[in-house]
């Protein structure tokens, strides 16, 4: 057993103190947002709220729960995160699998084109004109189809597919399986870690999508949650008048902002711990070569 020296103890103590400070800096703003969302209007306006609610109240969340526009935006974001992620995974795996096999000709040329998109992004005006030509403006599909395949996620998945023994795929071919059957029946069942990892990447991206919605959606009824959150943060006083039968005299725009921010972040906070264990395995397993 290795002896723990005094220098190692000092180093470990320093790490604990340093990481504790970093963690505190990261968590304090979140705790402050939580405290303000449960605090009364006077306490928030007078700056009395720090890390614990003052004049505890649920009126800010009562407003959020009774605001139909927030729920509609919430439902749109859930649709984008669920349906969009499924499309992303199907499209990414369908492209990554053939380009991971050495027997397919022309794969290097396609890989160069994909890598080119990681270095140079298309200007906004040509993208807007292209989307307009496809008649995707003011539809939810404009937030899914143009970004159906992420180049970064593609290379992660391709690296994972390359780590699958070629003998396993050859045995499927000998049994008479086509390439689609090999992909869906043999390869994909082995890819749960990378699928969970990339799926979470895609889901978080859809959930936090803001710029694409601002650029390509003008109908306020189709705004996803993040655009609605920004609208509330920028002009909460106006949003408070949106047909909610609650006494707004007991509320403050700051409290509404904090409640909406927490509600918008809650789904990802709930989902992340269940998929966290796949992260390291999903990102590193494709880099291990036998």
UniProtKB/TrEMBL annotation:
Tree of life domain: Bacteria
Protein keywords: Cell membrane, Membrane, Transmembrane, Transmembrane helix, Transport
Matches recorded under Pfam families: BPD_transp_1
GO cellular component: plasma membrane
Keyword Oxidoreductase carried by entry: no
Domain ABC transmembrane type-1: 74-275
Protein name per the record: Protein LplC
Organism, as annotated: Paenibacillus nasutitermitis
Taxonomic lineage: Bacteria, Bacillati, Bacillota, Bacilli, Bacillales
């Amino acid at each position: 057993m290795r002896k723990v020296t005094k220098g190692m103890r000092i180093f470990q103590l320093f790490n604990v103190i340093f990481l504790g400070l970093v963690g505190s800096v990261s968590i304090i703003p979140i705790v402050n947002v939580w405290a303000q969302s449960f605090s009364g209007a006077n306490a928030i306006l007078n700056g009395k709220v720090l890390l614990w609610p003052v004049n505890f109240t649920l009126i800010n969340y009562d407003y959020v729960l009774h605001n139909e526009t927030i729920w509609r935006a919430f439902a749109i974001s859930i649709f984008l995160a669920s349906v969009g992620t499924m499309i992303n995974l199907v499209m990414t795996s369908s492209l990554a699998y053939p380009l991971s096999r050495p027997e397919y000709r022309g794969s290097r040329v396609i890989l160069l084109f994909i890598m080119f998109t990681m270095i140079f992004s298309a200007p906004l005006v040509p993208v807007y004109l292209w989307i307009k030509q496809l008649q995707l403006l003011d539809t939810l599909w404009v937030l899914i189809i143009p970004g159906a395949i992420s180049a970064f996620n593609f290379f992660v998945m391709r690296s994972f597919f390359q780590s699958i023994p070629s003998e396993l795929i050859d045995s499927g071919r000998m049994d008479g399986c086509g390439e689609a059957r090999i992909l869906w029946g043999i390869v994909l069942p082995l890819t749960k870690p990378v699928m969970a990892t990339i799926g979470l990447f895609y889901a978080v991206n859809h959930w936090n999508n803001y710029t694409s919605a601002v650029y390509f959606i003008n109908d306020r009824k189709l705004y996803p949650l993040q655009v609605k959150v920004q609208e509330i943060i920028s002009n909460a006083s106006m949003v408070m008048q949106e047909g909610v039968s609650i006494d707004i005299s007991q509320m403050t725009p700051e409290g509404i902002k904090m409640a909406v921010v927490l509600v918008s972040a809650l789904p990802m906070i709930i989902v992340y711990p269940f998929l966290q264990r796949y992260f390291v395995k999903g990102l590193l397993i494709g880099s291990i070569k036998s």
